[in-house]
Each structure stands twice: as structure tokens, then as C-alpha cells.
Amino acid sequence: MHKLLTAAEAVARHVPAGAVVGMGGQNINRCPMALVHEVIRQGIGGLTVVGCNLSLPLDMLVAAGLVARTEQGTGNLERYGTLFAWRRAVERGEVGAGDHSHLAMATRFAAGAVGVPFLPTRSLLGTDLLADLVSDGVAVESADPWTGRPVVLLRAMTPDVAIIHANRADLAGNVVIEGVTSHEVDMVRAARATIVSAEEVLPAGAFADRPERVTIPEAYVTAVVHQPFGAFPTSVYRAYDFAEPEIKEYQALGRAGDAELREWIGANLGASFDDYLRARDPAGTLRAGLTEQMGRLV
Amino acid sequence: MHKLLTAAEAVARHVPAGAVVGMGGQNINRCPMALVHEVIRQGIGGLTVVGCNLSLPLDMLVAAGLVARTEQGTGNLERYGTLFAWRRAVERGEVGAGDHSHLAMATRFAAGAVGVPFLPTRSLLGTDLLADLVSDGVAVESADPWTGRPVVLLRAMTPDVAIIHANRADLAGNVVIEGVTSHEVDMVRAARATIVSAEEVLPAGAFADRPERVTIPEAYVTAVVHQPFGAFPTSVYRAYDFAEPEIKEYQALGRAGDAELREWIGANLGASFDDYLRARDPAGTLRAGLTEQMGRLV
Amino acid sequence: MSAEWTALPRELLVVEGARQIRDGDLVIVGTGLPLLAATLAQRTHAPEAKLVIESGVMFPKVVPTPVSVVDPRLMRGAARHGSLFEALGGLVQRGLVRTGFLGGAQVDEYANINSTWVPRPDGSRVRLPGSGGANDIASHCRQVVILTDHEKRRFPARCDYVTSPGFLGGPGERAKAGLGPLRVKVVTDLCVMEAEDSALTVTALMPGASVTDVLDNTGFTPKFRDSLEIVVPPDPDDLRLLREEIDPACVYFPERKGR
Amino acid sequence: MSAEWTALPRELLVVEGARQIRDGDLVIVGTGLPLLAATLAQRTHAPEAKLVIESGVMFPKVVPTPVSVVDPRLMRGAARHGSLFEALGGLVQRGLVRTGFLGGAQVDEYANINSTWVPRPDGSRVRLPGSGGANDIASHCRQVVILTDHEKRRFPARCDYVTSPGFLGGPGERAKAGLGPLRVKVVTDLCVMEAEDSALTVTALMPGASVTDVLDNTGFTPKFRDSLEIVVPPDPDDLRLLREEIDPACVYFPERKGR
Question: Are B130 and B98 spatial neighbours (Cβ–Cβ below 8 Å)?
Fold first, then answer.
């Protein structure tokens, strides 16, 4: 029973309006851009987007007016600046932002991943971050029953659907990610459904000779989408580096305003991710350069 | 700074009398036999041995009179029967046994692995297993603060030293395990010190081209011991199958009595694990057969 | 049907066990008869059923005949070689595994299981292996299947020690303890018993077994369903599969050796 | 010393930052000046110091010049590529990482850090990126080092929002909240401030900076250690290393470009 769908089919089936969407990727690495473009094309709104570091894909969804709330550790692109659309929307009160530490978010996903209602952490203690999480109803101050020392209980986070981009998947939904996995493995295990787009899709059982190298087993994967350069302009470790000029251009527009971002989205997304790639990089020279550049770095 | 020691050095330095010892391996797979033989040779006693399934290495330690207590999910060798020395010692009240479910033990190691004082589980509820863990002081019945539903908090298990056997290690202590890892990764991360014996020891950085394939990073490893066939007569996935006749012989002696086991230990352990291997399999034909047999199975 | 293709009692256990698996189920098994049952189901009516092994093996293609949950014969062609925490936490406690197979020294009227210790006549205790993943499976799976010989001492009214929860003290107690709903099916060489938030009820007899046989060999007095069924013997193809391909060396059927 | 080998103010920040790392330390850093400081330490007095990156990279051999915690330049030659939970839970919360480098929009008298939001003069809020791993690092590391420009708005008496804990409201509060002991070192272009369960105290001045400079640019009135030291400038070899090998493209030193 293979799980291969087009991005359009997978998103239409598994990302309902109002969903809690677990966002894969971190900063400039392995963001599920092809899947996010498809959410924008289909105009699926009212989303709660959750992740650790939320970056480019969140900002695009916010600029497209599709996000009601975020729960995150950070919203930024590090050296390339803040998420301008998100920042403005949060400042205007249009998007609610639930602030966590990265470990707090990872802990919430880890709870969902193993089917327990909460997990403890010793982070957050004494801070306004904790006070806000308590009033948001996702954290409770408690005490270690053995020592009486303070500890924070964090409620499990179980997204309706997780979307990630990976190096490789087989048709059964087994996934191999190279490089770091940030929060993604536990997020996927905690989610009710998961769409994985991958640079390469292989026959079912392609990884069965080395099952310990499978990052996410098929048990957690609902749909597989084949999309080379599906994380562009962010990187995929060992496949291609991030496209700095593309990220800088997006950020310059973001700094300018929401209208500029919406115009860019309207002008560039096209009818499919391959359309978009062709629009941004007609001859493929940019992509070839990113592949070559990654080759020099690994 | 390399971490290579002989088994004798590593055990002398890192396994003090009375230690809580986290036992690697499960059933007939990848038990740290070379390290356990060395604990027996050095007569390090008063140990608390903890693990999920405790099998051959525990029984040998019990037969040698070195174990005060166990905390475990099971003590047996599946098809090859119970652990006779352990069973007798527990029945006579000489060894205390703290019974858990396997998930409960794995949960306790997972708590120690990430530095929290406890983790919750929804296992154990309603059973005598829970009642005993509560009276042993390692479990507390609690309630999910969000729903009020019952949940069990399990105290972190942080062994003084973990001992495991792996396929490969580098001199810096990075470890690659093939096949399943049972409870071992979290146990090692939770332990104050870890000794890893390995079939193969490679130069530091040997795995740095594919760091996502490293099972346990050097941050958790205190000493590396080079010992080919260090899990014999248990198996190492992709290296050699388990030696059924050896296990059956041990179990037959175990069934007969403690004296018989002690006699076997005295007669077979020799001055080093290589001595023992030579005594059991002088020409290496048994080992060659096990390697060949594993080759047919993977 | 020729005698050659008549199932032995323990073969019938395996066959009836296999029937409890639906196509597409995730099933957690150890070794022994349950693994044979699950493999038989995969080879017959449930090709999309997937096996989970507590040691961390997910979805293997079994090679005959594993004797341990870490046997390399149980690890081949898997989707993932992971950890106990991944298998029992990430799949079982997470609620993704519908069916679990369990054994135990005692199964009581309310389908509770004891695999920790049993008393000797002199009051001392026989130490047993312990829970392993059994408590976790009984706590979180939707359906538990128990394959066992039918002996009086195995079916006491109440377990001397409850290692793994069935319905605890009776109806409603499982929910009260915080456990999810469960369906239990006990398959023995005499009968099939079922329970769902209730005491075990005999719903079918094995061919040739009688109500009296069941009553004589059970430590409590089970209810019987009004219309008792007779377990259907396997067709010869399935039996051939079990004998020749799934356990060809008779590792778990010494009684078949040399026949 | 020739002018060519005189450190720029921000270079001095990096050099003094590097000095806070002991050989053998595990150090958690992001990108920017802290990463340059940690790399410089590894290349000079602390060859056995090991880097941890929150994204899951453990012990990499850095290639110049990473701009993100997931930059491939920060992933090469690592001991492990894992997860956030492994890095921040398994190493930081587990207590294995001695030193963490942090930044923030505000650092207050008790070394608390704000990276969540700051008020505008009109009372509205400027939304900042948020905690990331900062709260976790400040909660669990034994030592926190902050490298920052010294501006009055960055050093209020009290943060408008406490994202990451220093000493909270004052001595004893950290322990009362359940947090372990911490030592904080703030290195700015004007001075070095230190605190250990106390308010920040100026312990050293940067070459050329005065007590008045510090007072004029700090939103609270810091204590000064009786015997103020002057930060020792780097020797030319270290500066050459920083300029030519650690950030040769001036990614984090635009002020050096074209000089």
C-alpha cells in the first residue's frame, strides 16, 4: 500500500482549515516549502502553527493571512532578521503567539510522541515565560514528589498534521533525514497525520537493509510527496545549501511590508512548486550551485 | 584524548563495590559479557543491577555472589528458561527484586537521560506491580492536571555506571550499535559513567562523515574497551549469532544449582576474556560458524 | 480430511490466534506461538498486518524460527530497528498498536494476568520472569489475545499477583483506574473465552472439547454464551503453511517432530 | 604594537569571551560572536573544549563562517547530528554543559535576560524572536556568558519581561525557584560585569573605557569591584587567527571590511 500523493492531494486531504500544523525544519534548513506553498495555493486558513524555531514558511503563511496562532520557541531567521510579517501580525494582535523555550516545545512534542499527557521540565522556572504558559493553560507549576523541588509540567502537543521535508522516503513512508532533526521526529510521532515531502522517493523497503538508519518509520507517515528541491530556498543537508540571495530578497520585502510580501507570493508561487522553481531559477544554475556548494561543505 | 582501556582497567576504575550498574543487552543479544566477566574476576560485590530484560550476565553475577538487588522488567532467557541463580536468590530473599514493566524501566532511564526527576506513564495503573513500586518509593500515583485522569510518576533511574557492548566505537567514545538498542541509549545517557566494549575500535572521528548514524555520542562514554566477541555467547547483530549450545549448557548447570554454576565460572573465566574464548572454542570454529550464520540472516 | 491435515491442539491455538488479527492491524508479539499466529495471519488473511517487537523492531519480515525478541530472525527487513521506548512508548502507549499477544502463569476470571510470582503449597513463592512488556500491552492495546494450555492452576478466580491488568476487580474498574477500554480473547486447547469490561465468558469450544472439560479445568466457573460455537479447524493450506514454512524445524511444536 | 594588530572593540568582546571557556568544557553556542569566541578558544587555550549546538549538532569542527545553528558549516565533522531534545534535554538540562553563551535585547541588574518583547515609547510592544534555547541554557548551565554592545537601553534595572533567568529578583531567588547555581559574565565593549547570586558587578574595564562611560551607558547603577582590572588585549597571533581563519570573510565584522 503505497502512500505517494501529489503535494496538492496530500494537503487537500490532510490539512483542514483551522488545523494545528506541526512545522518541520529550523531556520534556514529543511523547511517544508513545497508543502507550505501548497497550503497557500489552497488558501487553507485559521491555522495554528507549532514548532521550535519557526522561520520562512511560517512568515509566508502569516503574510498570506492563513495563521491564527503560533506556539513556538522562536520566530526568526537569525542573521537574516526577524520574521517581519509574523512580528507585525503579533504586534497588531492578529496572530496569537505562545512563547516557549526550545526545550519546552521539544518536551511537549516528546510527551505527545509517547502517549503521555504531559512531561516535566526544570526549564522555565522563575520566569515570565512560565507565567504566560501557565495562564495559557499549557504549563503547571508542580513539585518533584521525591524532593519537593519545583518542576514544571508541560502539556503534550499533538498536532493535527505535521509537515516536514526529508532527504529520502520510501513508498511505504519510511523516512531518512540527514544532518540534524531539530524537533521533527517527536513532532511527527505526536501528530495525528504527517505529510513528508522528500528529495527522493524510493520503492517500499528501500531502507530495510539498515533499519537502524531510518529516521522516522512508516507507522507515523500518512502521505509521501516527491519534490526535488522541496526545501528551497532553505537547505537540505548533503543535498544543497540554502539560497542566501532568495532569503535576503524575501526578508527585504518582509521589511517593506505585508503588501509587498503578498505581491511576491502572488507573482511567484505559480501552479506548482516546480513552476515556482522554474520562475526563480529558469536554467537551474542557482540550484546547481547550491548542490555544488553543499558538496564542498560535507 | 582517547578513552581506550583494558576491560580490567575500565572495571577497576569505574565499577566500585556497591554500585548501581546499568546492564546493557537484552536476552540473547549484545550482553556485555566481557565486562561482566571482569567484574566477576575482580569480585566487585554488593551491586544493584538494573536493566529492562536482565539475562545471562545478571545470572552469572548472582551466581558469583556479587548482587544485592535488581531493578528490572524481566529476568529470563525466554526459550532457554528462567535465570536460575537469580530466581533462587530472590526466592531465598538474598537478592531483592524491584519489578517494573519494560516501559516503566525505559521511562525511568529516559527521565535520567534528560535530567528530569521523574517521567509519567499510563502503564502500571490498577496493578500489584504499581502497588509494589509505590511502596519501594520509585512510583507515585498522580493525576493529569488537565483532565484529572490517573497517571503514574516514575522516579529517574541514574546508574552509577552503565556497561554495554557495541559493534563499533571510536577512541573518543562515539558508539555505533547495529540492530535494536533496547533500553541502552537512554540508560547510558542517564548514567554517571559508561564503559563500552566493542567488537571494533576505530580512530577518533571515524564516524564523523555520517554523524547521524552515531548511536551514542562521546559525551556519555567514559571508557572504551576493545573486545572482539565480547558479547559471546550472546549475539551481535550483523556480526555473529548467539551460541545456543553455550547458553543451553549454562542453563543446564543453572538448573542443577549454584554450586555447579560457581564451578563453571571458576573453571572457565580464566585470566581474560580471550582466555575464556580460547577455553570454550580453542580453534575458533564455533565463532566462525556464528559469524557465518549471522551473515545468512541479515 | 486426512489425519495428516488434522490440526494438533496447539496448532489449533495458533490458527485461532491468527484469526484475531485484522488486516492492517499493528500487532505486538513476543516469540513462541503468538509470533507463529501473527506470521500465519500475515501469510493468509492479513497481509497488511504489521508486527511490533518490544525490543525496538518494527514491521519485520520474519525468518523461521525466532526464539527471542532480539533474535536476528526477527529483525530482518524491518522498517526500523529502534528502542524499547520507541516500541512500547512511541507505538504501544501512544495507542497505535491495536492487538497484543500475552502469556502468563495465571489468568483470572477478570482476565488479569500474573507473570511475577505464584505461591507454592508451602506458602513460599515461585519467582517468575516478571512483566516485561506485558503490563504495557495490557494497559494500552485495544485487544489482548492470550494463547495458553487450559489447566486449572492457570485459571484461578483471582490472580495471586496482578502483573498486567485485565478488568481488575470487575466491570468499570479499568476505567476507574485510568485505563482505556479493552477486549480480551483467551484461546486454549479447550475453548475460546472472551471478555469486555466483564468476566471471561466461554464463546466457543475447540473441536472435541466439552463444557464439562472446560468446567473441570478452570479455577472459576465461567459463563457460557447461549449459542456456543465450535472453532473451525484450519484448512490444509494454512496448516501446511504453519508446518512447512512458518515453523519448519518444529521449534515450537516438539510434539510434531518425527511424525 | 602596530595599529594593524590592535583589536577592534567587538573583536575584544570575542577574545574576552573566548577566555571564559576552560579546556575540556562543553559549551553551548549559537552563531555570531559567541561561536567565533568558542572557536577561538578551541584554537588557542582550550583545544579540548567541545561545542554543542541546540539544533542537535554535537562537537562539530566549524568551517567559516556559519550564520545559522543549522548551517552546514556548523555541522561538519560532528560526533553526532541529533535533535533539539538531545542537545537541550540530554546535554543541557542533564547538566553536562558547563558554559552557555547568550544574547538578548535586555540584561538587567540581576542578569535576567529579555528576548521576548520590549515596550515602545507609546506603550505598544516590539515583538522579538523569543527564547529559543536561551531559557534552557540560563536554567541549566553553570556559567552564562553574554557578549553585547554596551547601551543604556540594553541594561535596564529590571527587564520588561524575563525570558531567561539570571538571579531573578535578587540573592537566593534562583534557588527558591528551583534553579541551580549560576555564574554570569557580561562582556561589553566597555567592561566586564560578573554576578553569582548577586547583582552585576563591574570587575574589569575594556582598554580606554572609564567608570563614567560605564555609568553613563547602564540603566542601573552597577557596583564596581575595588580593584578594577583592565581587559588584556589579544596577542597578535590570536587576532590574526580570528581575522584570517575564524571569520575571514568578515561576516560578523562588517566594520573590518575593506580596512
Answer: no
